[in-house]
Amino acid sequence: MDTAEFDLIVIGAGPVGENVADRAVQGGLSVVIVESELVGGECSYWACMPSKVLLRAGAALRGARDAPGAGVAGAVDVAAVLRRRDEIVHDWNDAGQVEWLQGAGIELVRGHARITGEREVTVDGERVLRARHAVAVCTGSAALLPDIPGLVDAAPWTSREATAVREIPESLVILGGGVVACELATAYASFGCAVTVLARSRLLGGMEPFAGDRVATALRTAGVDVRTGVDAQRVTRSGSRVTVELGDGTRVAASEILVATGRTPRTGDVGLDAVGLEPGAWIDVDDTMRVRGSEWLYAVGDVTHRALLTHQGKYQARAAGDVIAARAQGVAVDDAPWGRHVATADHAAVPQVTFTDPEVASVGLTEAAARKAGIAVRVLDYNLSWVAGASTHSARYDGTARAIVDEDRGVLVGATFVGPDVAELLHSATIAIVGEVPLRRLWHAVPPYPTLSEVWLRWLEEYDR
Amino acid sequence: MDTAEFDLIVIGAGPVGENVADRAVQGGLSVVIVESELVGGECSYWACMPSKVLLRAGAALRGARDAPGAGVAGAVDVAAVLRRRDEIVHDWNDAGQVEWLQGAGIELVRGHARITGEREVTVDGERVLRARHAVAVCTGSAALLPDIPGLVDAAPWTSREATAVREIPESLVILGGGVVACELATAYASFGCAVTVLARSRLLGGMEPFAGDRVATALRTAGVDVRTGVDAQRVTRSGSRVTVELGDGTRVAASEILVATGRTPRTGDVGLDAVGLEPGAWIDVDDTMRVRGSEWLYAVGDVTHRALLTHQGKYQARAAGDVIAARAQGVAVDDAPWGRHVATADHAAVPQVTFTDPEVASVGLTEAAARKAGIAVRVLDYNLSWVAGASTHSARYDGTARAIVDEDRGVLVGATFVGPDVAELLHSATIAIVGEVPLRRLWHAVPPYPTLSEVWLRWLEEYDR
C-alpha cells in the first residue's frame, strides 16, 4: 500500500461494507476496507447462504411429496447437502471475494480496525489509516449469548456452528423462537435430528401472530418438540450431553445446544469510545446512515439496529456509499423521503422471508404495528389454499395471506404470506407498498391464472365488499 | 323460471360469463346466464386447471432432482396424476359451479343461446329471453383446426382431449409451438410419452425470442423431438397410427395427433348476424367491453381477441359487469384510462405464465413490441442463475430475466422471466408496470435475500450503469 490516506475507510467487509465501498468508488472516491475475518461476511459463510442450502433439500422434497403423482417418499441426503453447503461457502475461503474487491478498485487491509481519532482508524494497533472524508462502521452483529448460568461453559452453538456443521448431532436443543431458531429447527429436523425448541414467547414474535403459530404447528408435525412460554434457568454439560433446566423444573437434554436468542452489535472493540459513543451499543444514525452529531462518521447495516437483514443492509449501503461520495464532492444531496441518498424503506417496507415450512414472507407493518402507528387499518385475510394456484400446486396446500391497508390513503402498508413457496410472492407487495400504488389501480394488476398470486384479486374483492 | 325478462342476459357460463353476471348482480341487476355445456367453462374442465395438474408432478420432481441432497430419481406416477386431475375437474361435473351461481343470485338456463333481435336471446330455438339493459357474449374460443388435408379425418386431439386423457399414448405428435403445445409437450414427456413438436416458426412466438429458445432446448433435453420451421402438408390415419407428412417430404408418425395451432372464436352460431356482425369472427369492443356501435351488446373474454387468457377475461368481466350495472342505473361511468369501468391493462400489462420447464412468465411489452410502439427502449437482461437465490435453489439453476424500460417515462413497460419457479415473480412486474412506479422509487423496493426476486436489484444496477 503506497498511501495511508483514503477518501473513505470502511470497517468490515461483509456485504454491507462491500456495497458502501463499491458505491463510493463508483462515485469517484478512493476507498480502503478493513476486515478481520473473511471478506464476504457473516451472510456468505455462516448465515443466509449456508442456512438456505441446509433448508432447500427438505423444501424440495416436501414439494415433491405434496404434488400428487410425484410419488416421492425419499429422505434428505445429508452428506450431499453438506457438500453443496461447502460449495456455496467456498470452503470458507474468501479468495473470490478478494478478487471482486480488487476488480472493484477497493483496497483491502486485513486486521482489526479501531477508530482512534477524527477520521482516523488504526489497524491491529499499529497501522494508521486516515480518511479525507468519512469512516463507515459496517461490522454487523453477532449472536447474543443470554446470561443463563452455565450456558457459556456448555460450549453452545450459535448460528455459525449450526450452519458450518460437519456431523449432524443426534439431538439438538434450540434456545430462541425467532427466524434463526425456526429455520434451523426446520433444517435439522429434515436431517433426522431430534430437535427441541425452547422459546420464551410465541415463535416469530414481531410478525403477524398466525405466522409463528403455523410454523409451530408444522414443526411439531415434523417431530420437533416446540415449547413456548418457557425460560431456561440453567445449562449444564456433561460429556456429550447438555441439559437445560427450565423454570418449571423440567429438564431437556440433547447432544448440542444452539443459542438463537437474538443479536448483539459488533461494536465492542471498534473504538467507539474515541468518538464519544458507547462501545458495544447499537449506533444511532440518520436516514443517510450518518451518525447523528458527526460530520464524517457513518454506520451501516446491522450495527444500526434499523433492520438486521442482509438485503436491507445492502440497501442502506447503496444510499450511504452514494451520499458519502456526493458530500465529498459537493454534489447535491437527495435526502427527501424516498430520495437517492436515504434509506426510507427501513421505516416502511422491510421485506423478510423465513424459509421454514411453511415459508413466511412479510413486508411493512403488521396489523398491531399499523394500529400502534395510528393508521386507519383495514385487515384483509385470505386462505391461500382457496386460490386455484394452490390446488394445482398441491392437494394439501395450506396457507394464509394478510394485507394491511391504510384506509385513509387507500394503499397497502403491510403484507404477510404464510405457505409453501410464497417467497417470490413477497416482492409484489414490496413494490405496491414502496410505490404507494392505490388499491384502485391495483385492480388493473391482474394476477396470472392459476398461481398463488391470485390472492391479490381476493384481497381486492374483500376490500371492496 | 317466473319471468323471461332480465336486466342482463349473459351467454356462456365460463369464468368470464360468471364474473360478468356476478358483478352485475352485485350492482343490483337481475341476471340470467345461458350455458350449453358445463358451467365453469373451458378453463375449469379442459384447459388451465387440468393442464396445470398434468404439469405439476413433473415440475415438483425436477425441483427435487435439482436440489442437492433431495436425492430423488423417481418418475411421475401417471395414474396418481390423472386421479388428481379428475378431482380438480370434479369428474367433469358442474354441480359445484351451479351451486355457486345460485348462491350468487344468478339464474341459469341450460341450452344453446342465439341473439334473435335487439336485447333478445332465444335458447334452443324455443325459449325467448329479453334483456331490459344488456346482452353479453362470453362464449370464449375453441381450438382452431388448420386446413390441412386429412387432418379432420385423423381424429385429432385438441387441448380438450389432451387434458381429459385416460390413457397416455405411446407417442404423440403436436402441431403448433405456442403455449398449449409447449405445456402439453412438457407434460406428456414427463409421462414417458414419445413427443414430437411440429412448429411453423420458433416456439412461443410473440414472446421474447429467448423464451421459446430456452423451452425448445429443455424439451429436447427431456427427449422431445422439436422441429421448428416445418409445415404439415397432409395427415393420414391408419388404425392406431397417425402420420404427418411435412413440406420437405419427411414423415412423422405417432399414436395420436394433438392440434394446438391457435384458437377460433365460438361466435359461429350465437346470432351475430341478427345484429349485423359477422358470425364466426372475433368481436370488436371498446374498453368497457361494449360492442362498437351498439348501446346494449357486450362481448367479454376470448371472443374479443383482446387477450386469450382466463385471468384477463375475468378482469374484463369485472369491468363489464360493473359498467353494465352503472349504465343501467344511471350511475357515473368511470371510463378514463385505468378507471373502474375499463380494461386498460389489456393494452399495457397482460401477464402470462407458461408452465413449461423452464417456466416462462411475461407481462407487458416485449422489446420488439416496445420498439414498434415507438418507445425509447432500454433493455435490461440478467442471467437469473447469477442471483444468490438461484444458487441456493439448485446447483444447476438456469434462467434469464429481461426488463423493458421506457426511458422517457422512467418506468418499466415489460418483463419476461424464464427459469424454474419464476411464476410467482411475475406479479411484482405487473404491479410495477400498472402502477407506473418510477425506477427511481423501485430502488427502495428491496428484494429479500436470498430469493430470485433479487434480479430486480440487478436490473436497477444495470440501468444506472
Automatic annotation (TrEMBL), chains A, B:
Domain FAD/NAD(P)-binding: 6-312
Cofactor(s) the protein needs: FAD
Domain of life where this protein originates: Bacteria
One Pfam family in the UniProt entry: Pyr_redox_2
Ranges of residues in domain Pyridine nucleotide-disulphide oxidoreductase dimerisation: 350-456
Cross-referenced InterPro entries: FAD/NAD-bd_sf, FAD/NAD-binding_dom, FAD/NAD-linked_Rdtase_dimer_sf, Pyr_nuc-diS_OxRdtase, Pyr_nucl-diS_OxRdtase_dimer
Keywords, comma-separated and alphabetical: FAD, Flavoprotein
Coiled coil: none
Similarity section: Belongs to the class-I pyridine nucleotide-disulfide oxidoreductase family.
Name of the protein described by the UniProt record: NAD(P)/FAD-dependent oxidoreductase
Biological classification of the source: Bacteria, Bacillati, Actinomycetota, Actinomycetes, Micrococcales
